[in-house]
Every structure is written in structure tokens, then in C-alpha cells.
Amino acid sequence: MAEYLSPGVYVEEFDSGIKAMEGVGTSTAGFVGMAQKGPVRGLPVLITSMADYQRRFGGYLPERIYGKKRFLPYAVEQFFNNGGSSCYVMRVCEKDSDGTYRAACAKGQICIAGKKAFLELEASNPGAWGNNIRVKFTLLTKSRTKVRTMTENRLDQEESQDDVKAGTVTLELDDASALQKEDMVCMQKAVKKSSFLFGEVKAVDGNRVTLRCVKSDVAQWVTAPEKPKQEDPEKPDGPGEPDHPGKPGDPSGPSEPGKPDNPGKPVDPGRKDDASPDVFLYLAEWVLTIQDDTASEQYESVSFNPDRSNYIDNVVEKSQILTVRTHGENLAAGLIDDLVGKEEEPAIVVSLADGFDGKISEEIDAAMYGGVDGAPDQRTGLKAFKTLSDVSIMAIPGITDKTVQSDLVSHCENMGNRFAILDMPLEDKEVSDLQEFRENVDTSYAAMYHPWLQCYDPLARRNIYLPPSGAMAGVYGRTDNTRGVHKAPANETLRNCTGLSVNYNDAEQGKLNPRGINLIRALPGQGIRVWGARTCSSDGNWKYVNVRRLFIFIEESIRANTNWAVFEPNDEMLWSRVEGTIRVFLTTQWRNGALAGSTADEAFFINIGRSTMTEDDILNGRLICVIGVAPVRPAEFVIFRITQKMETAQ
């Protein structure tokens, strides 16, 4: 409590009691499967549209290469077409017996000075998609400091001319404190902005900078236009030595054929002959552009100086397309060497190569989909979804292997906050075959759907059959968002499909529906609709999809909104606050139609206190609250009983 030592008025806040609760989301799906590109380990990637998926994971997969493992992009597209809003995607890749991925990353290099220094470029994840990556380094110059006019700080002109020819020149700057030896610079003459002299800072001593020129002919020193010679009345005419013979900067001095006059000194045409233009020293940085067939990235002001915050290794860490590793020193000097003599844009373009997808086997590797557990950034497959709390629907599209589906069901049961959608084999059409396949699973955390959907394939340019799990995940999300999780995801139309692999009749469905096989039917005049809402459970209490998902929603909402009670004093005041918080939430659900009953007392009950906790529970820090809810169940069979009404005599 607050201390009251000094007389005065004190204003304090206190908690009034119950806490507001907000229901958790139930429409976010999770997909696992093969993709053209994308990360194969770490956290699953959040996708909010099909265009987003194509940027991160590529396009559709050809049947001749991927076979039955190609359905992930189609399922994601069906998810969004049928009302889904967001999903997580995890890519898987096949491995050899030694644990290495069969697919390989595309690579490229920029070698400098006989491979003593080089840039190693590699696609961020394996696959032939990396062969389409183009990397472009464009020179970007930023003004750092101004060189004092050559008139004020002129070195010996003959010595300076020799230095330029030898590849070095010494300059005196206003302020050289911002430069480092590792920084590449260029001098730009104000009289001709297109004229550059590239170089490397060899030494910084106070404000005197020794600059190594990459080549002395990268940019010619600009000379002033030759002026008409004026006769000196005091000087006799006739042959003799020219004025200031060979002096740099004198337009009348001799020049060699093919070279500009006075290469040793820049002259501003707008100045006097004995004045030099302003010369600026620029810090040379780079614009890095990375592009593939579906995405592009651009990073401004990239440096090759490890001491700078924009060092290339640090900047490209966040790239989703490329990884870059630097080796050796003077990387910028080598890159600028490659720019010498280029008349077009000062840029270097590199294409990556040698990426491939590897041989995709026809057999299903259950371990590939199940994934490997470990550090959060090293998990793969289904194991990567362990750290996500907002995924409520899971699917592995098109994979009907018994082991894979068993792993998916086990994942949902262990997590307790998500529901699995299972596909059935395309080739299974007979009722007996479907019943036999259904016997593999008995759980309230999954539902099976059949038959497959006929949809148009933009890649093959023809109609193909797709597994229904992706479309059903979208129907789940659409129903949750429009009606609520308590509404059974059935009697809903399926969008973006033109037919079914099999058309079943009422008698056949009468054999399959009681076994928990949900059929998709083409009803005359009503389109293609989901005509089943049962789980794969043999327990009658959990035979409906909406009942299980409603309990998942209630449990997760209570779990997420009652953390405030942890470590609070376990007494009657806390019990009352917990009971009030949950009661308000369940009353809202009852008013929304999620719970059955004409009154709130009929819809649910909450018990907390001495009747639910013993003294041992309290001493051991346990707060136990018993909650009962009456879920609404779907009107699966609508029965109208009609009889004749006999006319009576008057």
C-alpha cells in the first residue's frame, strides 16, 4: 500500500473487478507442402494473399516434376478464393540419406584481384528458382567534404603530375575526419559533373589524404577552351619560348596528340586562367538491387566498409532472396576497377546459376512433412508450427499417406488449439474404399472431405482435380468471419471450381455420412456445396465439427485472457473476479447464438470456490474453475412430418 506520511489529498486508482475478455481468432490456417522457393526451416511465413504467396514461395508446380506433391500453391489459392484471410505456409524439401537437401541453392561470385577478395552470392533457399536472380550494384556517391582550391593548396605541379601518372595523388581537405582508409571515394569536378576520378583512400594524416587512382584515364581533367593569344606590347615578336611552356593549367601549353590539354589541372571555364574550380571528395556507396521472377528488393547506400552500419553483410541479412558473404579487403576498389571504361550506367550485374530442385521421388517421406524439432530457427515441417498460437486450421494438401495424416492429427491433438482437414485419395471412389480409408483415423480434432474439386490450372492450361482441403480451410474461415465458429461449415458453396471427381447420390452418402466422411455434392440448381459437418470421432459428443471448434475457441479465449490471475492472492476476491470475467464472456457468446438455452443459466454454468478446490489445492497454488457450456448442434436432419387433415361435418 501507499505510504501516507505528509498531510494532503491522495488520489489512487484501483481495479474494479472483472477483466474484459476478447475471443481469439479461429480463421487462420496453416499449410505444409512443397513449393518452388521459400525457407525450409525456422518459423512458417505469414501469407495474406495469393500474390504474397507467389512473392515468397513462387508459382504453380508442374506435375511432371512434383507429381502428387505439387498441390500447396493450388490449396493456398483455393483458400483465399473461398473466403480465407490469412494463413501460414511452411515449405518442405526432400533429403538424401545423409540428411542433406536434394535441392541446391543458386550461387554467384564477383572475384577481385585474382580471387584474393571476392563477394559470394547465394540464393536464400534451395531450388532452381535461384537461377533467375539478378544482382545489380550501382555506384552511388555521397558528398563528404570539399577539397580546398588548388590555388591555395597547390603542390609542386610537376610532382603532382607525376603522382597522377603513377596512380596516387595527395589532397588537402577542409575536413577528412569522416573518411576512413576502407572507404572508396571519387573526385568530381564542378565544371563537368559527368567527369569522375575513382580512387581508394590510402592514408589519412590530419586533413592530408593520399588517394590511389584506379586509373589515371578514368576521367580526363577538364580544360578550359583555348583563348585567343593576346600580344604583349612590351615583349618582342618572333620565335621563342611559349608563355609558361608545359605548365599545367595553361591552355597555350603543348599537348600530346589524343590527350586533352593540361591533364594535370582542372580549370573552370567561368574562372580566371590561374584559378581552379572547386573539387569535392565523395564517399562512394552502392545501390544494391536484387530481383527474381516474382519479387524484387532494393537497398540504398550499401557500404563495403565493415566499420559502417550500412556494411553490406548487415544490410542484406533481412533479404528474402539473397545472402551475401564478403571475403578479403578492398572490395570496393575491385568493383570500381570493373566500372573503368564503362560509358553507360556505373553498375555491375551478376546472375546466379547452378540452383536445382533435385529429383522429386514418387514415394511419400513422412519424416519430411513431420519435420525436425530443435531450436526455434531450425525447426522444419509440422514441428515449425509449435511456436505459433494463432493457427486454428491445419492441412497438408493432397497428401493422403496414413503416416503423414496420423502425424498431422497428433500435432493438432497435442497442441489442443487447432483442427485438421484431411484429404482422401483421388483414386478411391467406391464406398467400400472410402470406408476402409476412414478407419485409419479416430479423433475429434480432424474431419475428412471427398471428392476432389475440378479447377482450372493456369500452368497446364486445362482443368485438373485438386484436393478439397485448401478450399475447405477457406470455407471454415469464411463461416467463422460471417457467422461465427459455432456455425457448422456446411451447406456452403465452393467457389472457383467447376466440377467434382465423383458425383455421389443420397444413398451413397447415407453409407458414408455416419462414418464421418463429409461429401461435397453438386446439387441441381444450388451449385457445388459442402454437404457434411462431422468429425472423425466415434464419440457421439464430439461428432460435429462446429462443436469441437467451439470448445477450442472458448478454451483458447479463456487461456489467453486470464493470465492476469497468475500469482494473485488465491482468495475469495480473486475467485469472484475470475468468475465474473468468464461469465461476461460466455454471456456474450450465448447472446451471439453460440450456446443453447433460453436463458444464460441454461446455456452455461461456472463453479469456483471451496466446492472446486480443497485445502491442498490452495496450499499448492492451484485455482480450479469448473465451466460447463451447452453448444448448439447443427440441424443435420430437417424433418417435416405431414399428415392429412380430414374435413369435419358442420
Write up this protein.
By secondary structure, the chain is α+β, with helices and mostly antiparallel strands. The protein folds into three domains: 29-98 and 360-547, Rossmann fold, CATH 3.40.50; 104-226 and 243-356, no CATH class; 573-650, no CATH class. The chain is built from 15 helices and 24 strands. The chain has helices spanning 50-57, 63-66, 72-81, 157-166, 312-315, 331-339, 366-370, 402-415, 431-438, 469-482, 506-512, 545-561, 572-591, 600-603, 615-619; strands at 29-33, 45-47, 87-91, 107-112, 117-123, 134-147, 168-172, 184-189, 196-205, 208-213, 279-291, 296-302, 322-327, 347-351, 393-395, 419-423, 446-450, 453-457, 462-466, 499-500, 517-523, 527-531, 604-608, 625-629. α9 links the parallel β16 and β17 (446-450). α1 (50-57) runs antiparallel to α3 and α3 packs parallel to α10. The longest helix has 20 residues, at 572-591. It is globular. The N and C termini lie far apart (86 Å).
